[in-house]
UniProtKB/TrEMBL annotation:
Protein name: Uncharacterized protein
Keyword entries, A-Z: Membrane, Transmembrane, Transmembrane helix
TM annotation in the entry: 47-68, 189-211, 296-314
Superkingdom assignment: Eukaryota
Lineage: Eukaryota, Fungi, Dikarya, Ascomycota, Pezizomycotina
Species this protein is from: Trichoderma gamsii
Length: 315
């Protein structure tokens, strides 16, 4: 016979599951399917944020169904090398556009931006605070200067990023280089996964010590699924070799058309061979049926994980 408190805990779990499932976003599975990009940079400042906000043991069934539904709509369930990755959690599409211009102001074309790394990075750059944000005004009553913040109606970030080809002097200097996020997951990626599931690891240890129950292993299931997903993550298309291109290539400007909600202005400048690849196939998944099938299985298991835990807790 079930314990009298089992029904209470089951009801509480159902309520938490409903609220938590509605709060989950698609970025959870974007990080799962591209761990090289999401977890390559671990700092002391980011560790508490990762440990508190990025575990995956909660109710993910709703967002998992939505993610799988989008993949089905893009034809990824029809067989090997069938369908399109762009627009799914494998390779999200920002749905922005850009216009390329020559150095003398001639318009070249307007195309979809797809999944441009640098535009995504610029969108996360915070708007700095300047002294002109608050202006001095004279109080008519006492004649004393006071600070007024109502002079600035709105702020718009103007971001201009220039990309160039690395020279021999650059490669031989002490300038720090950032590795591309398209190789196999490095040690930092697996370390970050353990950090994000640290709360589940501590809970599992507590359950094992206090209750001496094998159910403690259930708390480690999200960690196991994430490690398997990272080990068999899909390969990504790397940067193109630039040694075969002309070093005297014309410089172009790329005007990014940000949505109204973004409210910013972005401009990329550089040789076409350097900039254009970030708008085309850089980071696109390399089709592999085994890796894709395994990742789809991981998504389905994460969708069932909380439901299984809730079911086993009431029997």
């Amino acid at each position: 016979m079930a314990h009298p408190d089992t029904g209470v805990f089951g009801a509480i779990g159902a309520v938490l599951g409903y609220v938590g499932a509605e709060a989950a976003t698609g970025q959870i599975f974007e990080r799962l399917l591209w761990p090289q990009r999401s977890y390559i940079s671990v700092t002391l400042k980011s560790i508490p944020i990762m440990a508190i906000l990025m575990p995956m043991g909660g109710p993910l069934h709703i967002i998992a169904l939505k993610t799988l539904d989008v993949m089905s709509f893009h034809g990824l369930f029809k067989g090997a090398r069938v369908g399109h990755m762009l627009g799914t959690a494998f390779y999200p599409d920002q749905d922005w556009t850009y216009t390329s211009w020559t150095s003398n102001g001639q318009k070249i074309k307007t195309e979809s931006m797809r999944n441009c790394l640098w535009v995504r990075a610029l969108s996360y750059v915070p708007i700095p605070k300047f002294g002109c944000d608050t202006q001095q005004a004279t109080d008519q009553t006492h004649g004393k200067p006071v600070l007024r913040s109502d002079q600035v109606r709105a702020k718009v970030a103007v971001s201009h990023l220039t990309l160039t080809r690395a020279t021999k002097q650059d490669t031989e200097s002490k300038i720090p280089f950032v590795n591309a996020d398209v190789g196999r997951p490095a040690f930092q990626v697996f370390l970050a996964i353990f950090i994000t599931e640290s709360s589940a690891i501590l809970t599992a240890v507590g359950v094992a010590v206090y209750f001496k129950s094998l159910w403690a292993l259930w708390w480690l299931t999200p960690l196991l699924l994430r490690l398997v997903s990272a080990v068999f993550s899909v390969d990504r298309k790397p940067l193109e070799l630039l040694d075969l291109t002309s070093p005297n290539e014309d410089i172009c400007d790329y005007e990014i058309h940000c949505p109204q909600s973004e409210g910013n202005f972005m401009l990329l400048t550089g040789p076409k061979s350097v900039v254009q690849q970030f708008f085309v196939h850089y980071g696109h998944p390399v089709r592999n049926q085994f890796q894709e099938t395994l990742q789809l299985a991981m998504l389905a298991l994460f969708g069932f994980l909380f439901l299984f835990g809730l079911f086993f807790s009431v029997i």
